[in-house]
C-alpha cells in the first residue's frame, strides 16, 4: 500500500497515524510517498483538508534527489502545482496553469512515463 | 551601523526568519 | 553554561569596534579577559540550511564578498549579513585568541565566542572561522606565524 513516507520527509512535518495526512507550518518543506514509479501511467489524488489564510501548498511529483527542506518544484527534480494562483513550478520557475485551489478541493495528478 | 551597512538592523538576540511563500522561487508566473 | 550565558546578557564584556590590520574593522577587548570566558554571542537571523544555500549565492551575485553565515547545526544557520550584532565583525585568525561554540540555553541553540587564553586590553578578538575547503580561495591576512594562507 502507498502511504506518505515516515522516513522520506522533512522531520518537522507532522504525519498522522494513518500516514495519509500531513501537516506543515512555517517555511515550505516536502514529504514523499512510500513508493515511486518509473514507467507506465499512474495517478493519485490529494485532498486539502485545511489551509488557513496566507498559507499555501505545492503538490506534485518528485524525484529522490529533490531537497526535502524546500518546496516540490524547487530544482530540476520536482514538478508541482501551487494552491496560490494555480501556478506550476519546476526548477524554481513558475508558469501560469490554472486558477488557484483551496481548502476542500481534491487535486488529481497523472504521470505518463513511456517505456 | 548605517555607515557600514545602510539597511543593517541590530538585534539583541537571534530572530527566526519568517520565510515568504515565494522564498525559493526564481520567477513567479 | 546557562548561568554563564545569563551573566553574558546582564554583564557584557566591554568590546570596541575599531580599524583592524587583519581586515577593515574588528572587535577589540576594552577590558582584560580571562581564559574560557564567554565574550559575546554571535547573533543574527536563524534560517534553514536550504535558505542559507540560496542566500549565499544571492549575496555573491550582489557582490557581498564576506560571509556572515554561521552554521548552528545540520538544519539551521545564523545569518548576520543584514541583521545581527557586533560579533559579525570579529575577524578570522589562524592563531586565534578565541573560539566559537554552539551552546544550548533553555532548549535554544546559540553561538557563543569564548576566550582561549587571557586577552589584554586593546587586543583584537579573533577566532578560527573553520571554513570548509573550496577551490575558490579567500586569502587570509591574520599575519600570524601559523597563518595557513587562506580561510578555506
**What is the residue-mean pLDDT of chain C, rounded to a whole number?**
90
Largest sheet of chain C: 3 strands, antiparallel
Mean pLDDT of chain A: 97
Number of strands of chain A: 10
Low-confidence stretches of chain A: none
Shape of chain C: globular
Order of helix and strand elements from N to C terminus of chain A: EEEEEEEEEE
Mind describing the biggest β-sheet of chain A?
A: 4 strands, antiparallel
Number of helices of chain C: 2
Structural class of chain A: mainly beta
Helical segment tally of chain A?
A: 0
Quick one: which chains have the greatest interface? B-C, 16 and 19 residues
Tell me the helix content of chain C. Answer: 10-25%
List the topology elements.
The complex is a heterotrimer of chains A (115), B (29) and C (152).
Chain A: E1 4-9, E2 14-15, E3 22-23, E4 31-33, E5 40-47, E6 58-62, E7 78-82, E8 88-90, E9 93-95, E10 106-113
Antiparallel strand pairs in A: 1-4, 2-3, 5-10, 6-7, 7-8, 8-9
Chain B: E1 9-10, E2 15-16
Chain C: H1 2-10, E1 15-19, E2 25-29, E3 38-42, E4 45-48, H2 49-62, E5 69-71, E6 76-79, E7 83-84, E8 91-92, E9 98-105, E10 108-115, E11 126-127
Parallel strand pairs in C: 8-11
Antiparallel strand pairs in C: 1-2, 3-10, 4-6, 5-6, 9-10
Structural description of this entry:
- The complex is a heterotrimer of chains A (115), B (29) and C (152).
- By secondary structure, chain A is mainly β.
- Chain A is built from no helices and 10 strands.
- Chain A is globular, with a radius of gyration of 14 Å.
- Chain A starts with a strand and ends with a strand.
- Chain B is mainly beta.
- The radius of gyration of chain B is 14 Å and the shape is flat.
- The model of chain B has no long low-confidence stretch (mean pLDDT 86).
- Chain C is of the alpha+beta class.
- Chain C has 2 helices and 11 strands, in the order H-E-E-E-E-H-E-E-E-E-E-E-E.
- A 3-stranded antiparallel beta sheet of chain C has the order 3-10-9, covered by helices on one side.
- In chain C, a hairpin with a 5-residue loop joins strand 1 and strand 2 (25-29).
- Chain C is globular, with a radius of gyration of 15 Å.
- The mean pLDDT of chain C is 90.
- Classes of the chains: A mainly beta (115), B mainly beta (29), C alpha+beta (152).
- Chain B binds chain C through residues 4-5, 7-17, 19, 23-24, and chain C through 25, 41, 43-48, 50-51, 54, 78-79, 82-85, 108, 110.
- Strand 2 of chain B pairs parallel with strand 4 of chain C, so a sheet runs across the interface.
